[in-house]
Design goal:
315 residues; alpha/beta; six-stranded antiparallel beta sheet; 14 strands; globular; disordered N terminus
Length: 315
């Protein structure tokens, strides 16, 4: 009788062991597919210390499927290269020039591995005042008063797409800071369906460019229109969130007292970015793929675009 129980128990134990192995195998990340790279920012919760995040702490999910992480490299040393454009809305009030000292300080404090460019949103295009340069003093000089003419920029999202499409591909990180009220007079309706905003988001995601934004009011009636300011700030926040950047706004129609706190926070983010490589699920057609990058480490978030461009898997 004892022998019978022992045999039955052994069989049950073997069954549990086989089931565990099958489950473990089902949870293993995909090994066949297409290599993809994206920039990820490590952001600790308020009051928490910056954690040490290793590749084994990073999860990349496509739906319920986990992708295999192949690289997790800090954007430092030989990999610190950064191309950073500051794109200013030419329809802003000229009082934004009071913030230029904060912007210049931010530029001057960037390391020599960071190239800075200055451009202005004007008539739906990005007019480059200073091409990307490691000479930060030269970038400082390109800052000028905005034209302060409502509608001169058409849709600000046209100018964002224009800059992104003309930006040459590079092995460096590529990021842009937008200073705008986000109001899209060309579309004209406050809802979540603005096609020009969505195009700008997709253009940034396809190019792997992170977009951060600072809200600043424009001229005229719309500068104090709560309805317009609300949707403008909402659009800017969506642009930043979906491309892996940061959004800074004050939740009202007035101008920020200073940009310094925003720029200080942005500078911290730039110092804690990683180049993430992973194997996306194989597909015969290239396109944007929705992914979720996360970690199970406590009190920390991994900030990344919610979509990444995946080339077609070679046959």
């Amino acid at each position: 009788m004892n022998i019978k129980k022992l045999v039955v128990g052994g069989i049950a134990l073997c069954a549990l062991w086989v089931t565990a192995l099958e489950n473990a195998g089902a949870q293993q990340p995909e090994t066949n597919g297409t290599p993809v790279q994206m920039v990820v920012t490590v952001e600790p919760h308020k009051g928490a210390e910056m954690p040490n995040v290793s590749a084994s702490d990073v999860l990349v999910m496509e739906g319920k499927d986990r992708d295999r992480v192949t690289d997790w490299v800090a954007a430092q040393g030989e990999r610190a290269g950064l191309e950073f454009f500051i794109l200013i809305d030419d329809s802003l009030t000229r009082s934004v020039a009071l913030q230029f000292s904060d912007i210049r300080k931010f530029i001057d404090e960037q390391p020599s591995t960071t190239q800075v460019g200055i451009a202005y949103m004007q008539n739906g295009i990005a007019r480059v005042a200073q091409n990307l340069t490691n000479d930060h003093a030269l970038a400082d000089k390109a800052l000028r008063l905005p034209l302060g003419m409502r509608g001169v920029d058409a849709s600000p999202y046209f100018a964002i797409s224009d800059l992104i499409k003309r930006w040459p591909k590079s092995d460096n990180r590529r990021e842009v800071l937008i200073v705008s009220d986000g109001v899209d007079l060309y579309y004209g309706t406050g809802d979540l369906l603005d096609p020009y905003l969505q195009s700008a988001i997709e253009d940034a995601q396809k190019a792997g460019i992170l977009v951060s934004v600072i809200y600043s009011p424009g001229v005229g009636h719309f500068a104090h229109s709560y309805w317009q300011a609300y949707w403008g700030q909402l659009y800017l926040a969506e642009l930043a969130d979906k491309t892996g950047g940061e959004s800074y706004y004050i939740g009202m129609t007035g101008a920020p007292v200073e940009f310094a706190p925003y720029l200080s926070d942005l500078a911290t983010h730039l110092k804690h970015q990683y180049l993430l490589g992973f194997i996306a699920k194989p597909e015969t057609k290239a396109g944007l793929r929705r992914v979720k990058v996360r970690t199970e480490l406590p009190k920390v978030d991994l900030v990344a675009p919610d979509q990444v461009f995946v080339p077609a898997t070679p046959e």
